[in-house]
What we know:
Elements: E1 4-10, H1 17-30, E2 37-41, E3 49-52, E4 55-58, H2 61-84, H3 91-94, E5 96-101, H4 104-110, H5 117-128, E6 131-137, H6 143-150, H7 160-183, E7 188-192, H8 198-209
Parallel strand pairs: 1-5, 1-6, 2-5, 6-7
Antiparallel strand pairs: 3-4
Helix pairs in contact: 1-8, 2-5, 4-7
Amino acid sequence: MSHIRGMILEGFSHAGKTSVLKALKLLQAQEESSERSIIVLSEHYSQVLNNVHGEFKRLSRDEHLHILKERVSMLRQLNEWATYLGPEASRASRGIFFILERFHLNHRVAFPSDSLYEIESLENELLHLGATCVLLTVSPGNVEQRMQSRTPHEWTSKSREEIRKSADEFIQTQSELRKQSSLSILPTIEINTDNKDWNAYANKIMNLLN
Length: 210
C-alpha cells in the first residue's frame, strides 16, 4: 500500500511556478482531510543551474542525476517507513504529500542527447510514488509582458533586441519542455497561466490529483 502522492512543477522562469507553489501550500493546509506530512522542495534542490557562493554553476549530467536520485530515494524511504507502520492509519495521519519544483523535465531538456535509461528509471519510480507532472506555460504573445512584469527594474536598461532574444529563449525552452513531457513516463497536466489566477490553478491541480 502506498502512503504517498504528489506532483512535480515544471516550467520556464516566469511561468508562475513560485506563485502556484505558494497557492498549493495554502490550499493543502486548509483541507482537513489532507496529508499532515508535506514535503516541498523548491528548484534550488533539484535544478541544473545553481548560484553557488555568488557564482553560477551548471551541474553535469551525472551530478544532476545523482541529486535527483537522492531526492527520490528520500521519498521512497519515507513511504517505506509509513508502509512498515501498517495500513490502519488514515491518509491524513500517515500520508505524505510532496511537491518538487524543476525535476525530470528540467533534466531532459538540459541533456536531450544523452541516454534516457536513468531518467526514465527515476520517472518510473516517481510514478509508483504517486507523482503527476504539472507543466505551467505562457502563451507566446504574452511572454514579453510576463517577463517584464515580474522584475521590471531588470528590463528598463535592456534594448528591444535583448528583450526579444530573452522572449525567444522562453518560447523555445517552453516548446522543448512540452515535447519532453510527451516523451516522459509520468502523466503531465499542462496549465496556461496567462490570467495569473494562481488560486484557481492550485484548485484545478488538487481536484485532478484527488
